[in-house]
Amino acid sequence: MKTRLGDHVLRAAIEVHRELGPGLLETVYEGALLFELRANGLAVESQVPIPIRYKDVAFELGFRADLIIENKVVLELKSVEQLSAAHRKQIQTYLRLTGLRLGYLLNFGAALLKDGIVRAVNNLPEW
Known about the structure:
Largest sheet: 5 strands, mixed
Number of helices: 3
Order of helices and strands: HHEEEHEE
Helix content: 25-40%
Strand order of the largest sheet: 1-2-3-4-5
Structural class: alpha+beta
Radius of gyration: 14 Å
Oligomer: single chain
């Protein structure tokens, strides 16, 4: 059975969290996760600028996606004590603006990473 891209992403994130533990800066986890994903043969871009369109005008002062994997999955990384509703809205907005269909909000500040994973979808077809 073919492994889904999301499964690869989550396994790599869990490996990074197990190795480093919680409480470091987001940039540390981003670098380690970038290394881990690329070591697994995935195409990954970091700090990808995403322009914003407002009333048919493109603004280059958009946001930067932490990681985009295989031009299919967007990752937003956090290292906070607890995720908020604003964090969850952020990943949904990133999906809408990029046109990507799958995203993960990963909170490396959680004691167990499984408690800090939020999966977000943007018009994914039902399986």
